[in-house]
Amino acid sequence: MTHRTITGKIAYTSKKPHMMDQARGEEDFRFTHHSDGKTTLRAHCFIAEPDPSVMRDIIYSLDANRRPMDCHVRLTVGDKFMGTGWFRFGDDYIECESYGPTIGRVSQRVDLATPIDGFGTHPIVADGYFLSLHDWEAKKRHTFNMYLPSPDHRGATPPFLAPVRIDGLYLGKEEITVKAGTFQTRHFQFLDDGSSGMSSEHPVYDVWITDDADAIFVQGGVGGYMQTWYELVELNR
Question: Where are the domains of the chain?
């Protein structure tokens, strides 16, 4: 076989008192690791709570050096079409072609003075994989220079290039058991004091990923006003 495939499902639940541990959405994902070193992630995400609902489909590819190549995003909010966008990454630029009912047709090009650390696509599994692309041995905290297709915390705006500088913190290794099994993991946090460029301050976001090259999201949660929890419930590799 010329490629290797990993598939899985992440359950979205709530930690709000009136919805404790109740389902609020789900995410299905597929990684394709090609023999030339490139990787493509496909993810389908559905957030049912809070209203309005958000449904997102992404196809995101990285090269053999684990740098972004291209990404397609399609979004519905409140079960109505919100927008679709295509992003292409060069050595010193990013291009975006996007369309949405509220923005019309938009073409963007951003010339980069310095390389970016990555592209945040909003699926939960992609958050974990993004963290694995960086060296944490010498430095336990990084400020990431990155772009997102939406600065909204749920990614619920038409796709366009949004610059963000958000911190990541490595907390160490832990053994974690979830519905999909027991895993050796690395524990991280995303930290945003409100100066990152996102729509507002983001509550602390804990992320656990498998301690191996696949870097599969195992569990995680966001505190503050969001009170969300995410858990790997299916995995096939």
Answer: 3-236
Are 169 and 141 spatial neighbours (Cβ–Cβ below 8 Å)? yes
Token pair for 144? 């990431």
Q: DSSP state, 205?
A: E
User: What ranges make up the beta strands (E) of 63-180?
Assistant: 68-77, 80-89, 93-100, 104-111, 118-119, 141-148, 162-178
CATH topology of domain 3-236: YmcC-like fold (2.40.360)
pLDDT at 10: 98
- Beta carbons of 214 and 4 less than 8 angstroms apart: no
Considering only the C-alpha atoms of the chain, give the largest distance between any 2 of them, rounded to a whole number of Å.
49
Quote the mean pLDDT of the chain: 95
pTM of the model: 0.94
Q: How far apart are CA 118 and CA 179, in angstroms?
A: 30
Interatomic CA distance for residues 43 and 45, integer angstroms:
6
Contact 127, 217 (CB under 8 A): yes
Distance CA 57, CA 49 (A): 18
CA 48 to chain centre: 18
pLDDT at 202 over 90: no
What sign has the CA pseudo-torsion 134, 215, 39, 119? negative
pLDDT digits (tens, 9 = 90+) for 34-64: 999 999 999 999 999 989 999 999 999 999 9
Backbone phi, psi, residue 8, to 5°: -170, 175
CA angle 94, 118, 205 (to 5 degrees): 135
What whole-number distance in Å separates Cα of residue 128 and Cα of residue 122?
A: 10
Quickly count: other Cβ atoms within 10 Å of residue 193's Cβ.
Answer: 9
